[in-house]
Design goal:
230 residues, mainly beta, Beta-barrel_OMP, 65% strand, 2 helices, eight-stranded antiparallel barrel, signal, Porin
């Protein structure tokens, strides 16, 4: 079965609803810090919405990029198997391409810088006193800068910086290796919303500034981290 954001969200709700069946010993209460390594699969969806009139049909290029990134987080563990945390995900640079049927060799290169600050909520389901499954959801803001070029890097699109509402849903597993020190792995889907560059700064075939680059920025992330309760 294909895992979609809707299916994942429904699974998160189902896990939370089943907590009486899965609940075991509650975790220690207190503040914690966390460090994460993030295996990121980023995609620029809906690039066909880019404005590039009069040049034929949209031709997809490279709409995905695989990067390694990281984040830091601080949070509070309530002792009733709920946790909340603030997370900062470091800046990530990616590039995506698209073309047209009229100018087959003149690809658009959309260059994206993205970073985000999130407020995450976790629900732990203790399987043993050391091992847990958990569901997570988050909301926050992403700062995204979009620019790029067409054909060659002297034909630039103006840069555009925007701040977008961002959400995430996910699930994972954790293991307390020693007292207060926990290793964990999470899968999460992240949607950073619609993005677009500024207009073309170069002279196009029509002598107009009527082109820009657009997409919807989403991540599939595999997070590997360590958490220490103070």
């Amino acid at each position: 079965m294909k895992v979609t954001p809707r299916v994942l969200f429904a699974s998160v709700i189902s896990l939370c609803a089943s907590s009486p069946l899965l609940a075991a010993e509650n975790a220690k209460e207190g503040y914690y810090g966390a460090l994460n390594l993030i295996d990121t699969h980023q995609k620029a969806k809906s690039m066909n919405l880019s404005e590039r009139p009069g040049i034929g049909s949209f031709v997809p290029g490279d709409e995905k990029e695989h990067k390694q990134n990281g984040s830091v987080a601080v949070g509070y563990q309530f002792g009733n198997n709920w946790r909340t945390e603030a997370e900062y995900v470091f800046k990530e640079k990616t590039e995506f391409t698209s073309g047209s049927s009229t100018f087959a060799t003149s690809f658009n290169h959309m260059k994206v810088d993205s970073e985000r600050a999130m407020l995450n909520v976790y629900r732990d389901f203790m399987i043993t006193d050391k091992f847990a499954l958990y569901a997570t959801a988050g909301a926050g803001v992403a700062k995204v800068k979009v620019g790029g070029w067409q054909g060659n890097d002297s034909r630039e699109f103006a840069g555009n910086t925007q701040t977008n509402f961002t959400y995430s849903v996910g699930a994972g597993t954790s293991y307390e290796v020693i007292d207060d020190l926990t290793l964990y792995a999470t899968y999460r889907y992240v949607d950073m919303g619609n993005i677009e560059s500024g207009r073309n700064t170069f002279v196009n075939a029509r002598g107009l500034q009527d082109e820009n680059l657009r997409g919807r920025l989403v991540n599939n992330e595999f997070v590997f981290g360590v958490r220490y309760v103070l």
